[in-house]
UniProtKB/TrEMBL annotation:
Residues in Glycosyltransferase subfamily 4-like N-terminal domain copies: 20-191
Organism whose genome encodes this protein: Nonomuraea helvata
Protein name: Glycosyltransferase
UniProt domain Glycosyl transferase family: residue ranges: 199-347
Pfam families: Glyco_transf_4 (PF13439), Glycos_transf_1 (PF00534)
KW Signal (keyword) present: no
Keyword Thylakoid on entry: no
Coiled coil region boundaries: none
């Protein structure tokens, strides 16, 4: 019997300790990858006990201590540096394929060295191109070196797996049309969606999001306040956690809508996410930057209409435009509040899930990822 290839997957964040789109992507792909490979995940030390543990056929390796990924609401440079240096530990591990998550960029440079010395292919999963505008906004001082590192990181892999056609297009604009890029979008567990019953506690608006500044949740809170000022007793459920948790709670208090907004920081199981999303009438997604928008896809699969904005770097708008009940509006308070009101006033739609969502079935997407890793 031939030996199964050993895949080393490097990512600084894993589910359920960190809850976000990329963590969910890898978590849901584990079972499909372990059917074809011997999978080893190299990450920070999120758990107590031994540095190496095995769960569900996946071997997890802690190559660095656990450090906060965010500082003042943006990515921590110190965490990125420590994790990048720790990635040199892979020089002493056996693997056939090195698959790397793009974030936080800096680690791709030492991993390029590891792959070269070990004579193994380096494949990177790319969620979004941040670009100079992001770095200028988030760092102000010293943003140019950060953008140069991102550009160098794009050139490190032998092949790239892009999670959306738009991300692939932006990569090719920077790297050239001949760059080897495979598009393998995020998938959704349609069986899990279909089996989930709506949570008994209903709400008007619901959102699933990491609590970060670029997610635009301050705009959502302002829109809720605007609608309530107009006599609409709108309620909202915000599912997720992140560095802006306290700031958003304080903003809800300041706007006088804390009683109408439920924050759920304790949800880690996808079945519970689906149940809570189905309990909402409208999925509100005011993010300014998304490489794909897995939460939007899941909401559409749950049969909940989505309202998002046309912010330039919000690539989730392309999914919403495909939805028969989706609304894409300008990224302004007036436009977003009006779009939410329009979606809430729309008649209920009990039609089956939109057929195109089936293109993102997890089994199908997983096969694309496996082929990209093991061509």
């Amino acid at each position: 019997m031939p030996r199964r290839p050993v895949v080393a997957l490097v990512t600084d964040a894993i589910h359920p300790y960190s809850f976000g789109g990329r963590e969910i992507r890898y978590h849901e792909l584990y079972a499909h990858l372990t059917a074809h490979t011997d999978l080893h995940v190299f990450t920070m030390r999120w758990w107590d006990g031994s540095r190496v543990r095995t769960e569900g056929g996946v071997t997890f390796h802690a190559i660095s201590r656990l450090l906060p990924m965010y500082r003042h609401g943006v990515r921590s440079t110190w965490q990125a540096l420590v994790f990048a240096v720790a990635c040199l530990r892979l020089l002493w591990h056996r693997f056939d394929v090195l698959n790397v998550d793009q974030i936080p960029f800096l680690h791709l440079l030492p991993l390029r060295l590891v792959a070269t010395l070990r004579r193994k292919p380096l494949i990177a999963t790319w969620h979004e191109v941040w670009g100079p505008e992001y770095w200028r906004y988030s760092m102000r001082v010293g943003w140019r070196p950060a953008w140069w590192i991102e550009r160098l990181a794009m050139r490190a892999p032998d092949r790239i797996i892009a999670v959306s056609p738009e991300t692939a297009r932006r990569l090719r604009a920077e790297l050239g049309e001949r760059t080897p890029i495979t598009i393998a979008p995020n998938g959704v567990d349609l069986d899990g969606v279909n089996q989930a019953a709506p949570h008994e506690q209903r709400t008007d608006l619901v959102v699933v999001s990491r609590l970060m500044r670029h997610k635009g949740l301050d705009l959502l809170l302002a829109a809720i306040a605007r609608l309530r000022e107009r006599g609409r007793a709108v309620t909202c459920r915000i599912i997720g956690d992140g560095p802006e948790r306290d700031t958003l709670r304080e903003e809800a208090e300041r706007l006088g809508i804390a009683h109408a907004v439920e924050f759920r920081h304790d949800v880690s199981e996808q079945k519970d996410v689906y149940a809570l999303v189905k309990a909402g009438r409208v999925f509100a997604f005011p993010s300014t930057r998304e490489g794909f928008g897995i939460a939007v896809l899941e909401a559409i699969a749950c049969g909940v209409p989505v309202v998002t904005t046309s912010a330039r770097d919000n690539l989730a708008q392309h999914l919403v435009r495909r939805s028969r009940r989706g609304i894409v509006c300008d990224h302004t308070l007036d436009a977003f509040a009006e779009a939410l009101a329009e979606a809430l006033d729309a008649p209920a739609d009990d039609a089956p899930t939109e057929p195109w969502v089936g293109d993102y079935a997890l089994n199908s997407i997983a096969s694309h990822v496996v082929k990209a890793m093991l061509p």
